[in-house]
Amino acid sequence: MKKILTASILLIAANAAAQHPNILISMQNFPNEPAIQLDPRNTNRMIAGTNIANVYYSTDAGQTWSEIVQSSSFGVWGDPVFAVDTAGDFYHFHLSNPPFGSWIDRIVCQKSTNGGSGWNDGSFTGLNGTKAQDKQWVSIDRSNNHIYMTWTEFDAYGSFDPQDSSRILFSRSTDGGSSWSAPRTVSDRSGDCIDSDNTTEGAMPAVGPNGEVYVAWAFNDTIWFDRSSDGGTTWLPSDIFVSTQPGGWDFPIPGIMRCNGLPVTVCDTSSASPHNGTIYVNWTDQRSGSADTDVWLVRSTDGGNTWSSPLRVNDDAPGKHQFFTWMTIDQSNGNLWFVFYDRRDHSNELTDVYLAFSNDGGNTFENFRISESPFLPDATVFFGDYTNITAHNEVVRPIWTRLDTADLSVYTALVNTGLVGVDEQNEAVDESPYNFPNPFRKETYVSFKLKKTSTVTLTVYDMQGNLVKRPLDAQTMAFGKQLVTLDLSGFPPGLYFYTLDVDGVHQVRKIISVK
């Protein structure tokens, strides 16, 4: 009984030490490019997914997850996107790889009526011979459950032939994903098929308060916009300029195999928001230089006719990378939430995950770190192209990929919105301890910074509260940054806790050892 009590105390302490507890969703099947969606009617119900065919579902607001591998007769080939209608039915949109057909020759929609544990075989749109259909996103009009989808069609994916081009397409379903309208071309300008800055990509629809359909995308160092007032039947005669995107949407980030800054579009439809009807577009670019990637936001209050100047979302000093942004809006109140990778706290490629928050329509932003520890990515491992975030009625769940010593994992965080902007405090420690990598194989490194010469004890416990080892035992350590190697090579893989005691002040962190 004593051991169980000790373990419980450690678990509570670990959760208390982390303002926004990180939840490991999965390390199976090389997860990357995550997506997540909660049900606004019941925010305990959530769906998430990663490449290529991994689907996760939760019934307790993301504290625990079940996992399945998605299948369809049309094939499942990644780029997961999720949506939910007013009946609580979830939809999974993904690329195809049919046994009879061509690779990514259509966009597939599968539906679940039981919270994600089971899915139908699906329907599809976009099939056009051997042309490639890629990077789809969707939005559901909650007044009638019409589903709107936009994506990029390539004449020949990856082709350098100037005769091959790309374009933005639109299709809709008015019967719960059973059937789809014939695709329509939205973009006025055609791009190339290289899958880079001069390719038309990143089209994401958003629904307005009166059923308007808005969409923005990137092409030729520019963000473009179009809209429809009749459910996608007709569109503006000319695309509208939103903003420049200096350096384009395809740019290098050290340690990342490839990185994009494609735009994310949302519209405020909340009746409780003073910004009802405002359209927001969020992206990243390198207008400040190749060593300084930033997160940007523009907004329109007149249906997309005119746009604000870009607003910088990350609030750090210039000179660091913020990348792979995603944005959502809490439609219960109009609050904006952003998630992105961030290197502001490091002088190397160590990477944290940050959130940003705005409750005044994007006039100001509160930035805060969400990851419990940084990770060090490896450019030889495909990391994916996206993060994601979902929110409703103050329930906020980001999702991101970690890469630790070539091990990919996918995480969410239980965001405590009441602590946004409140820093973790410790009189003796200048910054909260973290370890990297985490999860780890055999050994990890515990980093902390002392405000003064202090007496430090570092102790590791297993889940039952048993002492595993004590790397530091009342050791005198000097002011400044400290890095301690924690070697668990002789112990079985699993969940552990370490306590850092600095001059009698305790902090607890959880760590995961893998094979």
Features:
515 residues, 2 domains, 35 strands, single chain, Neuraminidase, 3% helix, mainly beta, 4-stranded antiparallel sheet, disordered N terminus, Immunoglobulin-like, globular
Q: What is the mean pLDDT?
A: 91
Number of domains: 2
- Strands in their spatial order, largest beta sheet: 1-28-27-26
Q: Helices and strands: which structural class?
A: mainly beta
> In angstroms, what is the radius of gyration?
23 Å
CATH topology of the largest domain: Neuraminidase
Q: What percent of residues adopt helix (DSSP H or I)?
A: under 10%
CATH class wording of the largest domain: Mainly Beta
How many individual helices? 1
Uncertain regions: pLDDT < 50 for 5+ in a row?
1-17, 423-427
Major sheet details: 4 strands, antiparallel
Give the tally of β-strands: 35
CATH architecture of the largest domain: 6 Propeller
The coarse overall form would be globular
Proportion of residues in extended strands? over 45%
Question: N-to-C terminal Cα separation, in Å?
Answer: 30 Å
